[in-house]
Amino acid sequence: MFIFTEPPYWLDEAYSSAITKLDIGLIIRNEAMAPIVKSVINKWFDPNGRFIDYGGGYGMLVRMMRDRGFDYYRQDIHCENLYAESFDIVDIPPFKAEVLTAFEVFEHLIDPVAELEKMLALSDTILFSTMVQPHGDVSPDSWWYFTPETGQHIALYSRKSLQALADRFNLNYNWNEQDVHLFSRKKINNSLFKIITHPRWGRWYNTISGERDTFLQKDFLSVQKRLRENLMPPSKTILD
After folding, report:
1. CATH number reported for the structural domain that contains residue 133 in this entry
2. Which tens digit of pLDDT belongs to each residue from 96-117?
3. DSSP strand E in 94-188: where?
4. What is one process in the GO biological process aspect for this record (predicted)?
5. Strand 125-129 relative to strand 180-184: parallel, antiparallel, unpaired?
6. Axis-axis angle for helices 26-44, 60-67 (nearest 10)
């Protein structure tokens, strides 16, 4: 079953503050997702590629992944970029990402089919999180994930509806039976996906995979150069 609101006429008001007061788990969620992203990339994808965090909020995950040595960029039409200001997809020429992440995004989508089409134009692999309906007769009174107070959760999925969405685009669908999902052109063993995205086993796999060189110093110098160029007065032509 797929649950959707009436046409959401209230979204301008709902997104007057992109991050709601109820999203008190933003920091711990990024801390939990960063090692999962790292383990998935290390296992099945090219860690030397480029990556996009779609609906990336303040840019926290982008900064965390760049600090871990992954060339990550942010996309978000609603939220101010605070932590990855110079690493938005608008800052560089268009590219096809090795993996696109979209954590706590799908439940915000007015048209999931159209939005997934946009994501697939950016990457053939979508790693995302959303809670799956725990049973068939959920309601705002029986399931906290509705969060009607915020007005932002307008699309809620069952396992079957996510499979239908994947099938529409001929994508392979993996789920770790919690809140992490993968749509991809690449076929991946789901039992192994569950292991790699498990907090304990994923961290173990990251340990044996080794650390990558951080982008921290490189990014610092890049941002510093941009700032200095913007502060310098325009050059003048001197005629003898």
Report:
1. 3.40.50.150
2. 999 999 999 999 899 999 999 9
3. 99-103, 125-129, 155-157, 172-175, 180-184
4. methylation
5. antiparallel
6. 50
Tokens of 225: 């150069």
51 strand-pairing partners: 72, 99
User: Hey, which bits of 104-167 come out as E strands?
Assistant: 125-129, 155-157
What is the tens place of the pLDDT at every residue in 119-147?
999 999 999 999 999 888 888 888 888 88
183-193: string of b/e by CB count within 10 Å (b at 16+)? Answer: bbeeebeeeeb
pTM above 0.85, yes or no: yes
- Find residue 182's DSSP bridge partners: 127, 174
Question: Residue 28 and residue 33: Cα distance in Å, rounded?
Answer: 9
How many distinct structural domains can be found in the chain? Answer: 1
Residue carrying structure tokens 């692999």: 125
- Cα-Cα-Cα-Cα torsion 122, 14, 24, 177, nearest 10 degrees, comes to -50
Q: Which residues contact 149 (CB under 8 A, 6 or more apart)?
A: 20, 22
How many residues in the chain?
240
Q: Which residue has the tokens 């499979």?
A: 163
Q: Is residue 207 in a domain?
A: yes
Place of tokens 């009607």: 148
**Strand intervals (E) in the chain:** 2-4, 50-54, 71-75, 99-103, 125-129, 155-157, 172-175, 180-184
234 lies in a domain? no
Other Cβ atoms less than 10 A from the Cβ of 50: the count is 17
